[in-house]
Amino acid sequence: MSRYCQVTGARPVYGKSVSHSHKRTNRRWEPNLQRKRYWVPSLGRTVTLTVSAKGIKTIDKKGIEAVVADMRRRGERL
């Protein structure tokens, strides 16, 4: 499973860690991903989504029906 949010599309961001001596090493910032189950009345079943914390807030604000419709329009697999 790749590390991305199915709702917002958030993916890892790459950059450098800079030490006190200013030595630079590679690092990456991972999105805060959670696996959540939602009941979708229009589908008549639950769907399990990998969503970021921001994605959970988006679902709370818009509703799961609107988010699922948006995901289907993009071609995201449920």
TrEMBL record:
Alphabetical list of HAMAP family matching this protein: Ribosomal_bL28 (MF_00373)
Domain of life: Bacteria
GO CC entries: ribonucleoprotein complex; ribosome
Protein name, per record: Large ribosomal subunit protein bL28
Keywords in alphabetical order: Ribonucleoprotein, Ribosomal protein
One Pfam assignment: Ribosomal_L28
A single GO molecular function term of this UniProt record: structural constituent of ribosome
